[in-house]
Amino acid sequence: MYKTTDTSGNHLLNIIFAPLEFNDNINSYDSIHATINEKLIDEKFVLEKKQIPMNKPLDKNINDEWSKQYWPIVWKGNPMIQDMNELSKTINMSETYAHIDKLVQLSKENEQTCKYENPTIVIFVDPRTNETKSITYDQKTSHNPIKHPVVDAINEISSNELKRRQVEQIHDRNEKNYLCLNYHVYMTHEPCVMCAMALLHSRISRLVYIKPSLKTGGIGKTSGHHEMIHISCELNWKYEAFQYIDEEVFKQIKDIDENINV
Ligand SMILES: [Zn+2]
């Protein structure tokens, strides 16, 4: 609530009532009107029906406009920029640069040697130790179209973990239940929906990719069918996902056929 003064000098108390759930059914507003009118019988009480914005204003001009139009709001800066600033404190950029540089270097080498036909490369890193757990190339062929590099990388990490358990004679099935818990994954290209889900099932915490897969990707807001798997509310895990934006880096990563599921 806030207090204002009208042109005759009378003090006015403004109060917002809002339903707990938004409902397009106009009867829900009418029932609120009826309830309040029933409880507060006062001829000086005026009830107005207004629709107000659901989200925070994203710049100061909108903030000032809404302050006049709806309700006084104190501008505290762009919440998205503040969120990004908070997030950036948790990101070790020198490690990110190092892994992106590694992707560029491996891409160039692969282009020179033509060892793998497809240019996609994936690096899995355990950020607690900065240890690289897998470097995997895309080995899909027309005979084996489901050989996606993310899935191959998870298979490799799984085999290594199995060997470790055998060598160390670990029989506790509950130990390290999630294979890639909180790992960071760096990719030359945005993963497909299947691989985005494989990353989710493996419980990674961060994905960084360089080139978007606009037709087949499972992450980007404008990719594929806009699944944005990493933040889907219907799934039981979420991870951060970023596209690494750098024109020089972008130029050094080979394009792929837009129909390929990375
Ligand atoms: Zn894939």
- The CATH superfamily of the largest domain turns out to be Cytidine Deaminase, domain 2
Beta-strand level of the residues, as a percent range? Answer: 5-15%
What does the average pLDDT come to? 88
Shape: elongated
Characterize the main sheet.
5 strands, mixed
> Helical proportion?
25-40%
What is the chain-wise order of helices and strands?
A: EEHHHHEEHEHEEH
Q: What is the CATH-assigned architecture of the largest domain? A: 3-Layer(aba) Sandwich
CATH fold descriptor of the largest domain: Cytidine Deaminase, domain 2
User: Radius of gyration, rounded?
Assistant: 27 Å
Structural class: alpha/beta
Identify every distinct bound molecule in the structure, by name, code or SMILES.
zinc ion
The total beta strand count reads 7
Q: How far is the N terminus from the C terminus?
A: 53 Å
Taken together, the total number of domains comes to 2
CATH domain class name of the largest domain: Alpha Beta
- Contiguous uncertain segments of 5+ residues: none
**Total of DSSP H or I helical runs spanning 4+ residues:** 7
Strand arrangement in the largest pleated sheet: 4-3-5-6-7
Protein name: Tad3 protein
InterPro entries: CMP_dCMP_dom, Cytidine_deaminase-like
GO molecular function: tRNA-specific adenosine-34 deaminase activity
Domain CMP/dCMP-type deaminase: 98-222
Features:
Cytidine Deaminase, domain 2; 2 domains; binds zinc ion; 7 helices; two-stranded antiparallel ribbon; five-stranded mixed β-sheet; alpha/beta; 262 residues
